[in-house]
Amino acid sequence: MRRGDVEYLIILGLCLSGLYVATTGLVMDLFGLHRFLWHAYAGYVFVSLAALHLALHWDRVTAYLRRRLGRSRMRPRPDVRARELERLPSGRRQLILATLTGLGGFLLGRLTPRPPTWESADLGQRYHAWSKPGASSLLSAALDWGPRPEPYKRYPGVPRVALPDPRGFRGLSVEEAIEARRSRREYAPGALSLEQLSRLLHAANGITAPSRGFRSAPSAGALYPIETYVIVHQVAQLQPGIYHYLVPEHALEQIRVGDLRSAVTLAGIGQEMLGQAQVCLVLSAIFQRTRWKYRERAYRYILLEAGHIGQNVYLAATSMGLGACAVGAFLDDMLNELLSLDGEEEATLYIIAVGRV
Length: 357
Ligand SMILES: Cc1cc2nc3c(=O)[nH]c(=O)nc-3n(C[C@H](O)[C@H](O)[C@H](O)COP(=O)(O)O)c2cc1C
Prior knowledge:
Blueprint: H1 3-31, H2 37-56, H3 58-69, H4 82-87, H5 91-111, H6 118-121, H7 123-130, H8 135-141, E1 160-162, H9 174-180, H10 194-205, E2 207-209, E3 214-215, E4 226-232, E5 241-246, E6 251-257, H11 261-267, H12 273-276, E7 279-286, H13 288-294, H14 298-319, E8 322-327, H15 332-338, E9 346-356
Antiparallel strand pairs: 1-6, 2-3, 4-5, 4-7, 5-6, 7-9, 8-9
Helix pairs in contact: 1-2, 9-14, 10-14, 11-15, 13-14
This protein binds flavin mononucleotide.
Residues 33-34, 182-183, 185, 271, 325-329 line the site of flavin mononucleotide.
């Protein structure tokens, strides 16, 4: 390969990796990600290519510097391209070019039509207003909001794993756990015990009042729309894979076996902690469980309930000396597909990574 080809390839690489850095930067900003390794890696590639580019054109750069600094003792070597020096833009041309570019950018910014304001773009705000009690709720009362579904989801015919009794553990007090809780994104190697997972699931969505079926986290109308799935990477006595938490039996249903570290990281927009944590709890909602009764307010309640459960998991993890991190930034379709959910009747809402720290 000739040197000219290499230079063109480097420039192409610079353009592509620069574009990648910019795009992943936008994604980071859009989703408010704390860490995004794809962005960082693209940055390293960009910087390496830029360094290579600089090294290959070192003669030109030094010639330019010599000229600009005007040091006579730094005279260019006779073989250093005099022609290239001539091609360098003069100071005046540079000034005009910079002024025109700045002016162009300013005009472009001024003349580009403004995007719609958040008031018109934010569907959430519209939903919030629409779901207030008022005229719309009178109208919505006339609609058929469908039947009440089964309270518990089951996967018939799949292998089941009984979970140990979660009660009796004495970790940090509530006050201590609240003080100590932090989102932890780095985890130590090793496995979680089945007891630890059992306690996490009990805190998340377990039954605490068996006679009435009431659970650890509150639920509007005790309708419990949230399902809990566990993506297991490393738990003693469990094969890696996906499990569904069968609430009434306090057991796990094994719905898929396999190493899903890359798949869940990918679905989590490259957030590496999702593959490093020993487990990822995924909360989904079966919307109809709440919708048949609370109609247009159902969506509010469902999200609030996922939040209650998320906090229970955080505190239970902290109390056991584990680390947790909530994740709201993920690719919904990819995560739904991973769990074989249709994304409409039942959709994923929240991931909570839990691991050893
Ligand atoms: C709804 C929600 C979504 C979140 N999504 C992410 C996420 O996608 N990635 C992440 O690293 N942290 C995420 N977090 C964690 C927050 O960044 C974290 O709670 C915040 O920085 C405050 O830190 P603390 O939890 O240690 O108090 C999320 C937290 C909440 C409540």
